[in-house]
Amino acid sequence: MSKASIDLVSRTDPEWARYILRHFDAFLANHANCERKASALAMSLVVKYADRTRIIPPLIDLAREELEHFRQVYALMEARGLRLTADEKDPYVNALLATCRTQRDARFLDRLLVASIVECRGAERFRLIHEALQDSELKAFYRTLWACEAKHANQFTTMALEYFPAEEVYPRLEELAAREAEIVRGLSWRPSLH
């Protein structure tokens, strides 16, 4: 698949990954919640946009893949004697969702493009974690996740291109990416993916 998503406007400071490794157990709990919510998001799009039949099969596949990632992260947590934690509101995702327009078609486009950007940021951060890890098994796991997140970013943009012209998709994606960079700059680090 050729790249359909766009590059992030801002980069995460590599020191972020070292911070995450110092709080890795707490990060794993957040990571598990992110994977679970990503699976739920894909299925909620299936329900909300059931008339957009061309995207239903890829959304189902994506939901299954994210659920498998949740299972894998949960297995890592179990091996470390960790439990799932109560879900916390994600200030990053909530701020991005607040940028979505309200008219049905515009909101549909924005939800797909926000999902693409979130997956791009996840890919970037999993790459940073992969590069910072010493444990070869964890390093390989986060390398796989990095590739999957990049693929998902492309998939969401490709889904948008199924229903909207590129002349509408890419300018809006650039607008949202610029807003995402502002949001990231305004957030403090915490043991979380976002």
Structure description:
The protein is mainly alpha-helical. The chain has one domain: Up-down Bundle (Ferritin). The chain has helices spanning 15-22, 24-48, 56-79, 91-97, 104-132, 136-163, 166-186.
CATH homology superfamily: Ferritin, core subunit, four-helix bundle
Distance from first to last alpha carbon: 26 Å
Globally, the shape reads globular
Order of helices and strands: HHHHHHH
Largest sheet: none
CATH class: Mainly Alpha
Topology:
Layout: H1 15-22, H2 24-48, H3 56-79, H4 91-97, H5 104-132, H6 136-163, H7 166-186
Helix pairs in contact: 1-5, 2-3, 5-6, 5-7
Quickly describe the structure.
With 194 residues, the protein is an all-alpha fold. The chain is built from 7 helices and no strands.
What attributes characterize this protein structure?
194 residues, mainly alpha, Ferritin, 7 helices, 73% helix, globular
